[in-house]
Structures are given as structure tokens and as C-alpha cells.
Request: fold
Amino acid sequence: MSTITREYSRSPAGRIAYVEGRYLPHGQACVHIEDRGLQFADSVYEVCAIQAGRLLDERGHLDRLERSLLEIKIPMPMERASLRAVMRETVRRNRIVHGLLYMQVTRGAYRRDHAIPQSAHRPTLILTARQLDFAVLERRRSQGVRVVSMPDQRWARCDIKSTALLPNVLAKSQAREQGAYEAWFVDHQGFVTEGSSTNAWIVTRDGILLTRPLSPDILPGVTRAGVLRAAREAGIRVEERAFTLEEAYAAREAFFTAATAWVMPVVEIDGRPVANAHPGEITEELASRYRAFAEAPVD
Ligand code: PLP
Reply:
């Protein structure tokens, strides 16, 4: 048995993945070795939070998936309604109450050639779901986390949710080695772009909530959009403008957002405490508003 197979055979019993039209035990789900997702990162992905068995912001994630696919000219692997049915079925078969649903769409498996094959119209679709420990997330949220900054060395189309995540993987690992939870990328002019897997926010000394405006420099976070809406509803002064690392050091509050983290307070940046090193008031207000939205009954 290969190391990989041994690793996956340890995945919790009963975990089911959807791949190439079939629901399979997680340890047996595979793609072809010539899949362009594997060989070229010729693929995009989505991650949806699952709360009480329900997919959060499902429409936002599907809209972004369609957009990412369109930008790199991969066809949707199936109609949206069918995809929604597969998403639900994957959540159901894995009995997820609180967790994450991952979807990867690759251009498919073809004889290796950098150029996109003329016949590339059979994308590979992969769905996996996993349980998240809500108590761990809540504990982390109540204390806040540390971030460290590093140069943004990613490509120029960070608005596409590509699986080419090597710079993000290296940044997150470097952050963890330094005892931090997340890395914040900084562009060559000294402005924070976003986190390695999250969008970055600060509250200035005069109470203005800042996050970088949408552009090819950042991923249009679905959680970011929800939190912007919540902030406006709460009457918080919001500006979508880039902020420098210096402004982040001097901020009254800082946090990041993602489907995997919701609203996560940042209490230290590059070893410097943010304000009093405790989650800030506006951050907590937004975290509880986002939680209320996530836990609201569906009509
Ligand atoms: N920025 C990056 C680079 C990400 O990878 C992610 C999520 O994976 C986000 C931001 C947050 O996006 P969302 O709120 O849609 O999860």
C-alpha cells in the first residue's frame, strides 16, 4: 500500500467523496494521473461553509465558481441545478452538521501539452465534505489570532479562485512556523492585499472599517461581501480602500474573513499587539451579526 493510500485509508470511516459522477468512499476516490488539475493546476475550486447541515451563501459560491470557470474557459461540469443536488447529497452522505464543502473543477485528463486541448470539454468535478469542530473555532475567535506579513508573490489574477495555491501554502506554513495563524500578503507599495486564505480588514483609530476594494489583486470573498453588508446595516462607517501595513500596525482593530473562519479577530501583527491585544468591539459586532445570518432559519 502506498503512503498516500495508507494516509487516506485513515480518513474517518463513512466519509464519501463525489468524483467523476460517482459517490465513493473517500479512500478510493481518485482522478487520472494526466488530469490537468494535477499536472498544471489547470483548475479552480470553491469552499462553502456548512452550518446546521445547510450550505451558507450557496448562491455566492456558485456565482463565483461560474465566474472563475468562465475566466479560464472551462465549461461548467453540469447545470447549476444538478450541481446543487450533488452538493446537498455530498453533505447528506457525509452527515455534516457543521463543516466545509470543497469543490474542485479541473479541465480534465488529456495527453500532456501546455496548450489547452481543442477537445477539452470534459471537466473533472470533485466534491468532498468534512466536519469542523465549532468549539475550536469559537475558542480561537474568542481569543483572536496572530498574523505575520510577507511579500505577495502570487500571480496577477488572484480574483480567480485557482487551485494554484503554492505561494499561499508556503506563506501559511511560514506563518505557522513563526507561531502565527495566518499570513497577510503585502504588495510592492506596502499595501496589504489579503490573507493566504482570507480577506483582510482593519478598523482605523477613528473607527472606519477598511478592506481592500475588489480588483485582480484579491479574491472576491463571499464572506467579505456578507460582512460588508452586515457592516452597512449596523451603521458602521466602511471604506473599500487599500491600507498599508503601517496602518494595520496602528489600527484599533483587525480581523479576517473566510468561509472557513467566518469573522476572525486578529490580535497581533508581526509581533505587535493590535490595540490592547483583545478582539475589538466592531469585530465582535460583525462576528455576531455574521453568526446570526449563518444560524438564521431558512424560509
Ligand atoms: N482570499 C483568499 C486568497 C482565499 O483563498 C479565500 C478563501 O479561500 C478568501 C480570501 C476568502 O473567501 P471566502 O470568504 O469566499 O471564503
Residues 47, 194, 197-199, 219, 221-224, 257-259 surround pyridoxal-5'-phosphate (CB under 6 Å). Residues 1-10 have pLDDT under 50 and may be disordered.
